[in-house]
Amino acid sequence: APSTDYQAESATISQGVVESNHPGFTGSGFVNYDNVVGSSVEFTVSAATAGPQTLKFRFANGTTTNRPMSITVNGGAAVNQDFPGTGAWSTWQEASVTATLNAGANTVRATAATANGGPNLDRLSVTGPGDTEKPTA
Ligand code: GCU
């Protein structure tokens, strides 16, 4: 199967708003995290089988300051992931995290770790064993 995309604008947003004023996003928009520690986006991710999967967060950060976020799966141990400047709010890149998912539904939450909030978040793409990755778009 191909990797599965989950749009941030369709996820559960805490302290953030859906916007579409910077081009290059997929779907209908992106999430602009509030500029506070703890703003978050939580995705419900379905996995066919338990095991390691690649979580790719597509983001833009038009500042020159890293906006690290804490990534948790099913409320487990937090992994700190960098979301560095991408050069412009309309320039999107992907940051990859490997995580172990359960078979069935999983919650993947990305929580801003600094008072700057998170980057603008477009989507989460999940690639499991045997999945083919789609071209970056
Ligand atoms: C600007 C930009 C937003 C971004 C914000 C931020 O306002 O237009 O898209 O989210 O900066 O610094 O978080």
From TrEMBL:
Residues 4-127 form the CBM6 domain. Residues 113-137 are annotated as: Disordered. It comes from the Bacteria. This is PQQ-dependent sugar dehydrogenase. It comes from Nonomuraea mangrovi. The lineage of its organism: Bacteria, Bacillati, Actinomycetota, Actinomycetes, Streptosporangiales.
